[in-house]
Structures are given as structure tokens and as C-alpha cells.
Amino acid sequence: MAASLPPALEKIVQRFQRRPDPKQRYQQLLWYANKLDAMDEAAKTPENRVHGCVSQVYITADFDGEKVTYQGDSDAQLVKGLVALLIEGLNELTPAEILAVEPDFIETMGLNVSLTPSRANGFYNIFQTMKKKAMGFQLAATTSEG
Question: Is the torsion defined by CA of 21, 23, 29, 34 positive or negative?
Fold first, then answer.
């Protein structure tokens, strides 16, 4: 049984499920891309680059001791939409909440069939990068407590 999704991510999944047509899903992704906050050029460093993506993708994460806030960007509009929906779905969660999210929501959204294999793989890599950053915060918090 899949774990329940955080409310914001659940809402996004439902939004995509209501669009059975791949073209509508692309339009939804472009909508997300357009509403993504601009990322500071200085943050586009090799450390923030998502590996395994055909396009240039950058993800940063900030941690206030409780919640994680992401920022991201891509040079490809559709991929930027994927980045934006992941940021909207995972922002303001605790590292533990982020780590509990399984990648199977990607299939539930129907995006795996709408995206090319390389984009679907990129989406997964972006998601894994975000989880890795959350794990780093969780480990740091655990070690500082002990």
C-alpha cells in the first residue's frame, strides 16, 4: 500500500488525474513552469545540478530547523514544470515527511505515460535529488541532537 501523500502533492496528483489527455498534461506542466519563482543565477552551481537529466536542472534546499524549502530551475520548459510541481508538492514539509514520499505518485499522475523515457527518468532524478537534500538535513539534525 502506498503511503498517503502530503496534501499539496495529493492536490497536484488529482489535478493531473483529471486530465487524461497527454496534451492537457503538457499544458498543466507549462502552467507550473510559468509560475515557478525565478532562481538566483548564483545558485546554479555544479553542487546544485541534478545529475541524470538531459536538460540543465538545478535544485537548492534551505532548512529552518523544521521545514525544508526548495528552489529550482531548468532550461527546458516542460522539465521546469516538473521541477515546479515537485517544489509545490514538497515545500514546507519536514525532512521526514519528504523522505516518506514514494515515487509511485509519478505513475498515479499518469505522467510516466505522457513523458518521454528520458524526461520521466529526469523527473525521478529530480525527485531523488530533493529527497537526498532532505536526508542531509535530517542527518544533520539527528547528529546535532546527540
Answer: negative
Q: Does residue 66 sit in helix, strand or coil?
A: coil
On whether the CB atoms of residues 61 and 130 are closer than 8 A, the answer is yes
Model pLDDT for residues 107-139, shown as the tens digit of each residue: 888 887 778 888 888 899 999 999 999 999 998
- Residues present in the chain in total: 146
For the residues of 29-64, what is the DSSP string, one character each? HHHHHHHSPPPPGGG--GGGBPTT-SS-EEEEEEE-
The catalytic residues are 53
| 57 bridge partner residues | 74
The predicted-structure confidence for 18-70, as pLDDT tens digits, reads as follows 998 889 999 999 999 999 999 999 999 999 999 987 899 999 999 999 999 99
